[in-house]
């Protein structure tokens, strides 16, 4: 008897040491389980950990059952029958024969025979974390009061281990959530393109919820939804897929509230063809809301593990990430609308300038040609006819030159046919001839550049030369364009009067338009100027 007491005391001490030294929760629980079986002379023992809902088991460890028998039994128990009694009542339970208890539901095929039974709840401060189960005490004897007392002590130690593990998991989970939310927040202020932002949100949400698949869909002009980002199993095949106006996603979006579906097969609103394609069993649908307007939806499918259903904390995470996604979509639309307004405004400004020049210069010239023709018609002598024809010829040539100049300003043919370097050479040569300024042009561009890059740089140089004529009072201009390793740089310098940058409105000199044009191709724009010191403009575009 004394030896038995010493063995039990030693086992309890060893379990206590394991609580402070063992990093694995399953490792600690397995040691508790084996000690309980050994000290009570039980042939079989099991330990079940109740999930957060308090209704079923999330872990089930055993001892005494070999691998072949475990395989023959099949799925782990779901917490029904006698096991369900312990989960509901959280009170110790001793039975002489399991089969005689009316609450027993029997054993699955392949399960070893069991008769005597001892079940003890794993409790800490009145909270049930699970249960310890022992069966088949040696020699067919019943479990005793001493066995029950010992197992209760072991169960208390198991409760400490489970609570510590859950506290650690919770702190780690909150840390991961905060890190992911910070990453998304940083991306919102640094990333312009919507697609990478939505992909990042889908990836991080899937990791934190531990889901199999996450999709983010946005409405199209026809009212249908289009999947813009996806993360998880075979996610790439879903990006770009359209969902009908009567899909589950569309219905939830219309209702503008979060919804959970524990079984998509039983949900009458779910498109079963799409569900089969995605292999979805459960769903969490979270609308993206901005000022009470639904602008998209996140759909999460299948929590990893035996129970694929989503919980309340998954819903809260989905709502947090949906808020970030809504900001990203709304900001992207605002930027796109603003860019479109600026483009339209720039086009209208250019149209007004061309209309003014056509009216004031070309229109007047054509009127003069018409008057010249009347002069020829009314001329009385050959000399009068010849003089009027000469004047008319000069006027036609001047008008033709103006029309060609306007055509070049609209879209230089040399830029399309030969590329940036020849087009700039012609631009600077024509500029020098028309203004009388000395223009030094140097370019080193070995190959053609993307069309949008060539157009942007050409327009930057063109606008810069126009500014120099209007504002700089310069005598010399330098234009240098070079191809560097990963970019093309254009530097335009003049020896004019310059200006104080902090006192000059950029839009007044067209500088704001230059910056915006370069931003569209991912470029940078810098300017250096001071009163009396000329101006240097630098435009650099990555390639």
Features:
alpha+beta, six-stranded antiparallel sheet, 543 residues, elongated, five-stranded antiparallel sheet
Describe this structure in words.
It is a single chain. The chain is an alpha+beta fold and 543 residues long. Helices cover 51% and strands 21% of the residues. The chain has a 6-stranded antiparallel sheet. Helix 1 packs antiparallel against helix 2, helix 2 (25-40) runs antiparallel to helix 5 and helix 6 packs antiparallel against helix 9. The mean pLDDT is 80.
How would you sum up this structure in a few lines?
With 543 residues, this protein is α+β, with helices and mostly antiparallel strands. Helices cover 51% and strands 21% of the residues.
Rg (CA only): 40 Å
- First and last CA, distance: 85 Å
Shape by Cα distribution: elongated
Order of helices and strands: HHEEHHEEEHHEEEHEHEEHHHHEHEEHEE
Helix content: 40-55%
Look at the structure and give the mean pLDDT: 80
User: Could you give the count of β-strands?
Assistant: 16
Main β-sheet description: 6 strands, antiparallel
Task: Look at the helices and sheets and give the structural class.
Answer: alpha+beta
């Amino acid at each position: 008897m004394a030896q038995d007491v010493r063995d039990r005391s030693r086992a309890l001490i060893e379990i206590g040491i394991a609580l402070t030294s063992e990093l694995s929760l399953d490792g600690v629980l397995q040691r508790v389980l084996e000690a309980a079986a050994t000290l009570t002379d039980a042939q079989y023992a099991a330990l079940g950990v109740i999930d957060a809902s308090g209704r079923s088991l999330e872990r089930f460890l055993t001892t005494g059952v070999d691998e072949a028998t475990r395989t023959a039994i099949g799925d782990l128990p779901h917490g029904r029958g006698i096991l369900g009694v312990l989960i509901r009542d959280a009170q110790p339970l001793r039975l002489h024969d399991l089969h005689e208890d009316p609450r027993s539901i029997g054993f699955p095929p392949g399960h070893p025979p069991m008769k005597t039974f001892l079940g003890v709840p794993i409790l800490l401060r009145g909270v049930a974390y699970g249960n310890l189960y022992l069966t088949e005490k040696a020699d067919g004897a019943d479990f005793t009061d001493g066995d029950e007392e010992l197992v209760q002590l072991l169960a208390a130690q198991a409760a400490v281990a489970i609570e510590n593990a859950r506290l650690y998991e919770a702190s780690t989970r909150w840390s991961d959530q905060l890190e992911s939310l910070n990453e998304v927040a940083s991306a919102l202020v640094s990333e312009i393109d919507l697609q990478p932002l939505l992909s990042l949100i889908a990836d991080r949400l899937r990791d934190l919820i531990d889901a199999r698949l996450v999709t983010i869909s946005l409405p199209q002009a026809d009212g249908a939804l289009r999947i813009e980002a996806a993360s998880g199993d075979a996610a790439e095949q879903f990006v770009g897929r359209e969902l009908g106006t009567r899909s589950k996603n569309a219905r939830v979006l219309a209702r503008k509230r979060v919804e959970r579906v524990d079984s998509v097969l039983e949900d009458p609103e779910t498109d079963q063809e799409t569900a089969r394609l995605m292999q979805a069993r459960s769903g969490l649908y979270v609308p993206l809301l901005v000022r009470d307007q639904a602008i998209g939806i996140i759909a999460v499918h299948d929590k990893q593990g035996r129970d694929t259903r989503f919980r309340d904390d998954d819903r809260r995470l989905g709502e947090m990430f949906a808020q970030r996604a809504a900001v990203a979509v709304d900001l992207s639309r605002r930027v796109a609308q603003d860019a479109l307004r600026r483009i339209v405004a720039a086009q209208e400004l250019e149209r007004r300038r061309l209309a003014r020049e056509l009216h004031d210069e070309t229109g007047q010239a054509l009127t003069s040609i018409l008057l010249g023709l009347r002069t020829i018609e009314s001329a009385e002598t050959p000399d009068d006819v010849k003089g009027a024809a000469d004047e008319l010829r000069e006027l036609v040539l001047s008008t033709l030159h103006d029309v060609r100049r306007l055509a070049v300003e609209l879209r230089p043919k040399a830029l399309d046919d030969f590329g940036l370097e020849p087009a700039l050479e012609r631009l600077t040569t024509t500029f020098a001839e028309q203004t009388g300024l000395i223009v030094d042009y140097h370019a080193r561009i070995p190959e053609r550049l993307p069309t949008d890059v060539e157009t942007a740089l050409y327009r930057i140089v063109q606008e810069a030369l126009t500014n120099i004529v209007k504002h700089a009072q310069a005598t010399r201009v330098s234009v240098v364009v070079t191809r560097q390793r990963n970019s093309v740089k254009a530097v335009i310098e003049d020896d004019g009067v310059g200006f104080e940058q902090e006192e000059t409105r950029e839009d007044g000199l067209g500088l704001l338009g230059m910056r915006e044009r370069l931003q569209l191709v991912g470029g940078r724009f810098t300017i250096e100027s001071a009163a009396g010191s000329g101006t240097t403009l630098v435009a650099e575009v990555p390639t």
